[in-house]
Design a protein that fits this description.
432 residues, mainly beta, 8-stranded antiparallel beta sheet, 4-stranded antiparallel beta sheet, 29 strands
């Protein structure tokens, strides 16, 4: 067992989780803003079909390093592909997902932050996480106890890991860690290396903090990380029932453990704690009514699709001038195309590119409707000509840094790709 002193120095080292080298075989190019001179979206080869192991691909997300994470609910897996369609090694833990009770997890959404934390949900009140960086480097030791000093009285308290007091003091502004004891506890290390629960709405503390809703009954339908890897994520709750529990929730990060990696770096492990309901049920612009998907842009604006009355697509923007953030509608029905009901039949997913251009999957119309950052209609993707669709039951979309659209097509369990024809790269060929 090791003892660690001068603990405050580690707070500066915690950012080491941001260190991740983008593989040389992953190409990233900046996508330009959409404009009227751009031509149509064309399909590029090849279509990624069931030969990749897809059974029911229903969601998709692009990581910082360009890799594509594809949620396959039916196979209890998250498939990972490079941009060229090859399968990278090191992601086997995301196949055949199981929870702490060894029950299969059927993931429904995934997102990846800049620290290579892979978050995913399964339609319950839980959020899971798996860290790619920890798996690549390995964990040497974990904190199992510590001595904390009260800043005002200088009184010391010895605390064991895992107790309520441990989490309280580790995240308190009134206590400082004086000594952290670490050991090679293989059971804890294995639990951190594998996918594990990050947030559980049925946890006693989360139910206490979420006192206006039934946190333990939450039904998470959408998930998004923040652009700058701030210490929170957001989820959409579609539980409903007589309480109309349709809302967007902020989940805050809480320090849970100090890790020493095999390269002698020190990083924090976190668990999620209920933060707030940032927007609740309603039928007007900027309210929530049966949410289906969720995404965020680099300005902190939240975008979501829903199936309830009256508007299918919303954007809410934060006002940070007060003691806490308040969210108001960023689009208006009278002036912004994206809130027009005439443009959608059944929008089920939404995604943003790096320039805040907006891509909405319309499952019934079988196409992707594209808007610029101001919510002005631009073009459609997935169509042959003006109306005939090459897709059948599209359910999700994501966009990489090159401007390539990746679409989960549930109709044939495939991933289709599209790009504006005037910006095709040499390695992206249109369909013959």
């Amino acid at each position: 067992m090791y003892k660690f002193f001068c603990f405050f120095a580690l707070l500066l080292i915690g950012s080491c989780m941001d260190k991740f080298i983008i593989p040389a075989d992953i190409e990233n190019q900046t996508n330009n803003n959409l404009n009227a001179g751009d031509t149509s979206f064309v399909q590029v080869n090849p279509v990624w079909r069931s030969g990749y192991g897809f059974v029911k691909p229903i969601e998709i997300s692009i990581a910082q390093d360009g890799r594509i994470f594809i949620v396959d609910s039916a196979s209890s897996s998250i498939h990972v592909l490079n941009q060229d369609g090859e399968r990278p090694v090191g992601f086997e833990a995301l196949s055949n997902l199981t929870d702490e009770a060894s029950l299969l997890i059927n993931p429904t959404d995934v997102d990846i932050d800049k620290k290579m934390n892979v978050y995913f949900i399964d339609g319950s009140e839980r959020v899971f996480v798996w860290n790619q960086y920890w798996n690549e480097i390995g964990i040497k030791n974990v904190s199992i106890s510590g001595v904390f000093t009260h800043i005002e009285t200088q009184a010391d308290t010895f605390v064991q890991y895992g107790t309520n007091l441990w989490f309280s003091l580790l995240n308190s502004n009134e206590w400082a860690a004086k000594e952290i004891n670490r050991e090679e506890n293989q059971g804890i290390i294995d639990s951190l290396i594998n996918p594990h629960i990050f947030y559980d709405g049925s946890d006693e503390m989360n139910r206490y903090l979420d006192n206006f809703y039934n946190s333990e009954l939450s039904t998470f339908s959408g998930l998004t990380t923040t652009y700058n890897s701030d210490n929170h994520i957001f989820v959409a709750d579609n539980y409903g029932e007589v309480e109309n529990q349709h809302r967007i929730i902020e989940i805050n990060f809480q320090r849970s453990m100090l890790l020493e990696l095999n390269n002698n770096e020190f990083v924090w492990a976190f668990r999620g704690q209920f933060g707030s309901t940032v927007k609740g049920f309603g039928t007007g612009a900027g309210t929530v009514n049966k949410p289906l998907s969720l995404d965020m842009d680099y300005q902190g604006n939240l975008y979501y699709t829903q199936e309830g009355d009256f508007f299918s697509v919303h954007m809410i923007k934060p006002n940070l001038s007060g003691d806490f953030a308040t969210y108001t509608s960023g689009f208006q029905p009278s002036s912004d195309d994206i809130m027009s009901g005439e443009l959608f039949k059944k929008p089920v997913d939404i995604s943003l590119d790096n320039n805040r251009n907006i891509y909405v999957v319309d499952k019934e119309e079988m196409s992707i409707t594209v808007f610029n950052s101001n919510g002005k209609y631009f073009k459609k993707a997935g169509l042959v000509g003006d109306s005939l669709s090459m897709l059948s039951n599209p359910v999700a979309v994501a966009i990489d840094d090159r401007g390539v659209l990746y679409v989960c097509n549930d109709g044939d369990s495939s991933i289709y790709r599209f790009k504006l024809s005037n910006s095709l790269d040499e390695d992206l060929k249109p369909e013959d």
